[in-house]
């Protein structure tokens, strides 16, 4: 059916309604009443012409608008339903994670305490090892220092002994004693 035929069909329907329902009402009233119905009928006919014209010129646009609008609303409802199910699913996941949170915190606390105890044991072992290393190093340094001190003491003792011997020799040995000593060791030196 074309738009023109729809327009005339709608106009014919409106006229039929006016003639069928309004005319009998006008005839059943008093003699002066039909004249009072004439303006009402004219308004109804004018309205029918206006409605038919609007339907003819804007009917397709209005139908397309309402059709598009209803499709948009259906699509939005479907999207909203999908979004709601996704949100409910995510909410379930979050609630499940929140339900697990106290257990996870307790586990973390236990692991932290166990790690702290292990760290204390490790630190105690490391401290003991470091103390032993430092003691051994100190012992070696003390041994080295005492050997050096003995050597220095020995060198100092030898030097003092030599000085003392030289002083005694210079003081106690005369020139005759020196000549006799040279003569006594001369044969041994020549060999």
Describe the protein's architecture and organization.
With 191 residues, the chain is mainly α. It has a domain at 140-190. It contains 3 helices and no strands. The protein has helices spanning 3-28, 33-172, 175-190. The longest helix has 140 residues, at 33-172. The protein is rod-shaped. It starts with a helix and ends with a helix.
How are the SSEs ordered, and which strands pair?
Blueprint: H1 3-28, H2 33-172, H3 175-190
Helix pairs in contact: 1-2
> Helices and strands, in N-to-C order?
HHH
Q: What percentage of the residues does DSSP assign to strands (E)?
A: under 5%
Biggest β-sheet strands, sense, barrel: none
Question: What does the average pLDDT come to?
Answer: 82
Query: Helicity, in percent?
Result: over 70%
- The residue ranges in which pLDDT falls below 50 over 5 or more consecutive positions are 30-34
Keyphrases for this structure?
191 residues, mainly alpha, 3 helices
Structure described in brief:
95% of the residues lie in helices and 0% in strands. By secondary structure, the chain is mainly alpha-helical.
């Amino acid at each position: 059916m074309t738009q023109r035929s729809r327009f005339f069909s709608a106009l014919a329907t409106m006229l039929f309604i006016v003639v069928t329902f309004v005319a009998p009402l006008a005839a059943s009233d008093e003699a002066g009443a039909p004249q009072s119905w004439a303006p009402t009928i004219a308004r109804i006919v004018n309205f029918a012409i206006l409605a038919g014209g609007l339907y003819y010129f804007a009917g397709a646009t209005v139908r397309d608008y309402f059709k598009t609008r209803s499709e948009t609303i259906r699509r939005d409802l479907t999207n909203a339903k999908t979004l709601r199910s996704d949100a409910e699913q995510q909410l379930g996941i979050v609630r499940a994670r929140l339900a697990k949170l106290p257990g996870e915190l307790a586990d973390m606390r236990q692991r932290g305490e166990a790690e702290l105890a292990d760290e204390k044991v490790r630190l105690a072992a490391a401290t003991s090892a470091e103390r032993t290393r430092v003691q051994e190093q100190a012992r070696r340094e003390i041994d080295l220092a005492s050997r050096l001190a003995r050597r220095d003491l020995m060198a100092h003792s030898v030097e003092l002994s030599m000085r003392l011997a030289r002083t005694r020799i210079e003081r106690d040995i005369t020139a005759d004693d020196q000549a006799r000593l040279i003569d006594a060791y001369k044969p041994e030196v020549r060999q």
